[in-house]
């Protein structure tokens, strides 16, 4: 009934415009990526060979690009390549970032949710405001703050905490600081949205029955906000895995993340098929936790009914 | 104990996190006025980095390119995002709906490196087959719009879902044609969402490095690309000056937008109240 308020050609137009756009600029590029990941590397003029063998006219898929991700040589040990290391490193740092964001963001979101309703919009807007100013510039600023001659080192030396500058820039620390800083709002907002709906009378009841605040928090608030925790975790974890800019600016040279590896394969080694294969595996890395997430939220929605 | 915990620990925690969020911004604003290149000591007040900024042709050119790219991206994303949101909210059944919804949402979770790489492969392929498009502003806009459309869709979708459908039904019952219903009723109701979609995709585009790096051609560099290039080399207070101007602009835009939204909401509430009053007095005499 409701959807019949447009005539058929109008309806076709409304659906057709975004659909066509997505087919050309989302699906087609993805199919090309998939195609190139299954062919041989070409020469200087053609970066990759066609999938049809011109002499026999047969279709030939090449799996070498994928194999080379998992082992260095034919018959060599599995999973001991630089690529696998980069994937694992990316996942590890993404997990660390998500955990740090949760530890910092959870109490923060909780206190905003428990503050007076009249000040909440202002408090939230203050979280969003840095988010709207350039992400690149904010990451860049950390370079100046964490540098050997930077503000933090100068401060620590002035106070006498250390006599020599501590190297923070271009280490895991600076990279994690940058990632946590950038993704923190993505954790705070879903947590807040969840916590603000919570019935805090449940906590009062627990207090009245003699539960300690910490125990009440652990037994009531945390389980009730599980959906918010999972959502925030995903919102931080997923973009962190593929992060390219923050590791390039703040990370050390030994900590190459998978986004950078794809970039280098494409532009430095000029190996388009392998870059494509690496990107396809990267999509797989993102899809698995997402599928689990949707299953989890789907189950939760079903359980409610 | 409980009261102390809630009152003080909360305030301290919030203050520390806000300090963390604002420290880099404050840092850049302060040191953009520094008289020397130093990063840790404020040696004196000066506008020299602002002067250097206006003379830096790479930054100035990058800025104008970014403004153009972001404007076109913002408009395209708001339009396409509105279309996509409309399709998802209003058309419950059509061939390939699941695929459509998957494709609209996918850029939200796809790593930018993958989006950039796959679009680059498309553009190279298109250039081999049709001799078009040259990599540059046009291809950057296409890449940014793919991402902006997804974000725009999410924003407009939430407005559409909140909207009260009965006004549209009332207009239709009174004989309005479908396109009249859309332009007179639906569009004004979701205007806030469309504007937010524009602002969001404008910001995303104005800020994007990765997709631009993949899709830009030789000599075509957006502002973030220029800054990214500088940033890899070392500290340059000119960038702090650029950042300060940006922070100022964003603050003004956000505050004006919030004021506009608040005013719109109040106006609407007044109109509804007036209409309800008029309605009741019209009915009462009978």
Automatic annotation (TrEMBL), chain A:
The keyword Membrane applies. The chain crosses the membrane at residues 12-38, 91-111, 123-141, 173-195, 216-238, 275-296. Residues 87-293 form the ABC transmembrane type-1 domain. InterPro entries: MetI-like, MetI-like_sf. It is a multi-pass membrane protein. PROSITE patterns: ABC_TM1 (PS50928). Belongs to the binding-protein-dependent transport system permease family. CysTW subfamily. This is ABC transporter permease. It comes from Rhodoferax mekongensis. The lineage of its organism: Bacteria, Pseudomonadati, Pseudomonadota, Betaproteobacteria, Burkholderiales.
UniProtKB/TrEMBL annotation, chain B:
The keyword DNA damage does not apply. Residues 63-257 form the ABC transmembrane type-1 domain. It is found in: Cell membrane. The chain crosses the membrane at residues 12-33, 63-89, 109-130, 136-156, 181-206, 239-260. The keyword Hydrolase does not apply. Its main location: membrane. SUPFAM superfamilies: MetI-like (SSF161098). Keywords: Cell membrane, Membrane, Transmembrane, Transmembrane helix, Transport. It is a multi-pass membrane protein. It holds the Pfam family BPD_transp_1. Belongs to the binding-protein-dependent transport system permease family. CysTW subfamily. This is ABC transporter permease subunit. The lineage of its organism: Bacteria, Pseudomonadati, Pseudomonadota, Betaproteobacteria, Burkholderiales.
């Amino acid at each position: 009934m409701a959807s019949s308020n447009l005539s058929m050609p109008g309806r076709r137009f409304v659906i057709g415009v975004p659909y066509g756009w997505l087919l050309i600029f989302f699906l087609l590029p993805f199919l090309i990526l998939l195609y190139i990941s299954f062919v041989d590397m070409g020469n200087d003029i053609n970066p990759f060979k066609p999938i049809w063998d011109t002499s026999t006219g047969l279709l030939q898929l090449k799996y070498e690009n994928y194999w080379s991700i998992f082992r260095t040589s034919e018959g060599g040990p599995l999973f001991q390549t630089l690529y696998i290391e980069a994937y694992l490193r990316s996942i590890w740092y993404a997990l660390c970032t998500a955990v740090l964001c949760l530890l910092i963001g959870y109490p923060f979101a909780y206190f905003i949710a428990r503050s007076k309703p009249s000040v909440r919009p202002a408090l939230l807007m203050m979280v969003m405001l840095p988010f709207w100013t350039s992400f690149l510039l904010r990451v860049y600023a950390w370079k100046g703050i964490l540098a050997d001659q930077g503000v933090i080192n100068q401060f620590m030396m002035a106070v006498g905490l250390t006599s020599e500058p501590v190297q923070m820039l271009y280490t895991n620390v600076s990279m994690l600081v940058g990632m946590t800083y950038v993704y923190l709002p993505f954790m705070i907002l879903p947590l807040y949205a969840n916590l603000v709906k919570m019935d805090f009378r449940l906590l009062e009841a627990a207090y009245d029955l003699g539960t300690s605040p910490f125990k009440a928090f652990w037994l009531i608030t945390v389980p009730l906000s599980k959906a918010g925790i999972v959502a925030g975790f995903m919102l931080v974890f997923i973009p962190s895995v593929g992060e390219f800019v923050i590791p390039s600016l703040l990370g050390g040279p030994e900590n190459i993340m998978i986004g950078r590896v794809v970039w280098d394969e494409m532009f430095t080694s000029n190996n388009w098929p392998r870059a494509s294969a690496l990107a396809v595996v990267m999509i797989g890395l993102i899809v698995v936790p997402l599928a689990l997430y949707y299953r989890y939220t789907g189950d939760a929605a079903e359980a409610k009914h | 104990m409980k009261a102390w915990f809630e009152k003080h620990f909360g305030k301290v925690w919030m203050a520390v996190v806000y300090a963390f969020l604002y420290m880099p911004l404050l840092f850049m604003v302060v040191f953009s006025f520094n008289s020397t290149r130093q990063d840790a000591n404020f040696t004196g007040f000066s506008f020299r980095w602002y002067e250097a900024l206006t003379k830096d042709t790479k930054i100035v050119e990058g800025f104008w390119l970014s403004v153009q790219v972001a404007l076109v991206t913002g408009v395209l994303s708001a339009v396409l995002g509105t279309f996509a949101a409309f399709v998802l909210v209003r058309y419950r059944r059509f061939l390939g709906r699941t695929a459509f919804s998957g494709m609209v949402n996918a850029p939200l979770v796809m790593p930018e490196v993958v989006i950039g790489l796959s679009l680059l492969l498309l553009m190279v392929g298109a250039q081999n087959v049709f001799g078009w498009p040259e990599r540059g502003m046009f291809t950057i806009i296409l890449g940014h719009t793919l991402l902006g459309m997804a974000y725009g869709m999410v924003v407009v979708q939430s407005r559409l879902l909140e909207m009260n459908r009965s006004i549209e039904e009332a207009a239709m019952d009174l004989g309005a044609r479908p396109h009249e219903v859309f332009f007179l009723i639906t569009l004004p109701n979701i205007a806030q969402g469309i504007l937010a979609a524009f602002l969001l995709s404008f910001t995303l585009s104005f800020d994007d490095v990765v997709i631009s790096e993949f899709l830009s051609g030789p000599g075509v560099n957006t502002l973030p690309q220029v800054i990214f290039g500088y940033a890899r080399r070392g500290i340059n207070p000119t960038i702090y000056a650029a950042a300060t101007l940006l922070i100022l602009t964003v603050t003004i835009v956000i505050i004006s937008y919030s004021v506009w939204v608040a005013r719109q909401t109040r106006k609407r509430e007044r109109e509804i109240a007036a209409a309800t009053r008029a309605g009741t007095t019209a009915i009462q005499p009978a």
